[in-house]
Design goal:
By secondary structure, the protein is α+β, with helices and mostly antiparallel strands. A hairpin with a 2-residue loop joins strand 9 and strand 10. It has two domains: 237 residues, Aminohydrolase, N-terminal nucleophile (Ntn) domain (Glutamine Phosphoribosylpyrophosphate, subunit 1, domain 1, 4-Layer Sandwich), CATH 3.60.20; 185 residues, Rossmann fold, CATH 3.40.50.2020. The strands form six sheets. The chain has a seven-stranded antiparallel beta sheet with strand order 3-2-4-1-10-9-11. A six-stranded antiparallel beta sheet has the order 5-6-7-8-12-13, covered by helices on one side. Helix 9 packs across helix 16. The chain contains 18 helices and 23 strands. The chain binds iron/sulfur cluster.
């Protein structure tokens, strides 16, 4: 049993809302529409949940490229008419980011753009390369000078230094060197190129608006502009959009897809359709599986909003327990509070969530959340629900315990900071002070996705943050570990 009094303040040193995995990035490109920049700004606005730190748009007017890159929300910078007017042209490429790699420097804002000998070239990347440092070292030894600390700039340099003749061949040449997760959209003077890594870890879809092809991360970015969903870009597929049409290429050896399972649990918007599955329906099925696996005798099912809501609905329906909004989320917590002062931080989650006393008082409550990362928010929320008069609190988590870090474009704390990597379920229950705690099993998660179970020999998804089973090499990590071991040996010698 954990002695809670012996533990340090779980919120010490953390921003108040730092107990969620942060989404990676969203991309949006449109080719051949008179409102290209405005459509891209709207598309990025719909993808805002994938990254709230900065956004950028590059456009091409037939003669030259135009670039706008700004820190902050899409709506902070890209609603002003002069900004959109400066992004002239019928082709545009946009990106919204959370700093998964390279820190939060302004020069890391995407899309990246460079003038090559063959003309301008822009790239927007969703994902993370696991061999970026190794590639960067090699490129720097051969004279490349980097402007940013982002892994995406490596791709730009690889394309620029390829000895192939044609642009598409250069891009293929560059992409064959990459390890990790990459859903990319590139824009040149004549082409828009979209590509997914061979495992298809991150999403990328093709849409259409009035005959103008669109490449973007999620279908909600098509809905906002009234565009039509055409299809998913397949894992390992490259599509080349030109004025004469769309060509599909398969430049990589085939591989068994490993789409990110966490897109269904948390990252994607519930109104998106991802890889043929409606995210909202999957989350409700997750809740139903959770209710079947780990029932609780309770009066109410209450979601931790917003991410826990669809799973809580599914749980409540399956368990025949009333669903109630026992916690209300304040949607207007702006950027002011993202890095708050200590005084504000110690107000804890109350800035964002408040317990609904009239609903909770005297009740036995099942609280449903999507995941537990550090445990800090769960601890505060459980206390808040108890302070509001709940008689019992039974926590149910709509995913397996998060035991490992993500290296594919999601900002996860290092493993030692993940509560599930340090404690058993019973210890976590004691730590967050609940009457009972249960996580969805891995097979339960796979069942919610329509699979009989997880195929341990060849898992159908990437689930590494729950299993530690990474689907690619982690070259930069291996190199870091080797350096660490060599220095330990040197110290011992
Ligand atoms: Fe998704 Fe987790 Fe795999 Fe990262 S490690 S890609 S979050 S399933």
């Amino acid at each position: 049993m954990i002695d809670r009094n012996a533990l340090p303040d779980p919120l010490a040193g953390l921003p108040f809302d730092d107990d969620k995995l942060h989404e990676e990035c969203g991309v949006f490109g449109v080719f051949g529409h008179q409102d290209a920049a405005a459509l891209t700004a709207l598309g990025l606005h719909a993808l805002q949940h994938r990254g709230q730190e900065a956004a950028g748009i590059v456009s091409f007017d037939g003669v030259q490229f135009h670039t706008e890159r700004h820190v902050g929300l899409v709506g902070d910078s890209f609603t002003a008419r002069p900004v959109i007017d400066r992004l002239a042209g019928t082709r545009a490429l946009g990106h919204t980011r959370y700093a998964t790699h390279g820190g939060s420097l302004e020069r890391n804002i995407q899309p990246f753009f460079a003038e090559f000998s063959g003309g301008g070239f822009a790239v927007a990347h969703n994902g993370n390369l696991t061999n970026a440092l190794s590639l960067r070292d090699r490129l720097q030894r051969h004279g490349s000078i980097f402007q940013s600390t982002s892994d995406t700039e490596v791709i730009l340099h690889l394309v620029a230094t390829s000895r192939r003749e044609r642009l598409v061949e250069k891009v293929i040449d560059a992409l064959r060197e990459l390890e990790g997760a990459w859903s990319l959209v590139c824009l040149s003077g004549k082409k828009m190129i979209g590509c997914r890594d061979p495992l298809g870890v991150r999403p990328l879809i093709l849409g259409d608006l009035d005959g103008a092809p669109i490449l973007t991360s999620e279908s909600c970015a098509l809905d906002i502009i009234g565009a039509r969903f055409v299809r998913d870009i397949e894992p390992g597929e490259m599509v080349v959009v030109t004025e004469t049409g769309i060509e599909s290429l398969r430049p990589f050896p085939p591989a068994k897809p490993r789409f990110c399972i966490f897109e269904y649990v948390y990252f994607s918007r519930p109104d998106s359709t991802v890889e043929g599955r409606g995210v909202y329906e999957v989350r409700k099925k997750i809740g139903a599986e959770l209710a079947a696996e780990s029932p609780a005798a309770a009066d109410l099912v209450v979601p931790v909003p917003d991410s826990g809501t669809p799973a809580a609905i599914g749980f409540a329906e399956a368990a025949a327990i009333p669903f109630e909004l026992g916690i209300i989320r304040n949607h207007y917590v702006g950027r002011t509070f993202i890095e708050p002062s200590d005084a504000i931080r110690h107000m804890g989650v109350r800035l964002k969530h408040n317990a609904n006393r009239d609903v909770l008082a005297g009740k036995r409550v099942v609280l449903v959340d999507d995941s537990i990362v550090r445990g800090t928010t769960s601890l505060k929320i459980v206390q808040m629900v108890r302070d509001a008069g709940a008689r019992e609190v039974h926590m149910r988590i709509a995913s397996p315990p998060t035991t490992d870090s993500c290296f594919y474009g999601v900002d996860t704390p290092e493993k030692s900071k993940l509560i599930a990597a340090r404690m058993s379920v019973a210890e976590m229950a004691a730590y967050i002070k609940v009457d009972s705690l249960a996580f969805l099993s891995m097979d339960g998660l796979y069942r919610a996705l329509g699979k009989a179970r997880r195929d341990a020999a060849q898992p159908q998804f990437c689930d590494a943050c729950f299993s530690g089973d990474y689907p690619t090499r982690l070259t930069d990590m291996e190199r870091r570990d080797n350096v660490r071991q060599l220095s330990l040996l040197a110290e011992a010698g």
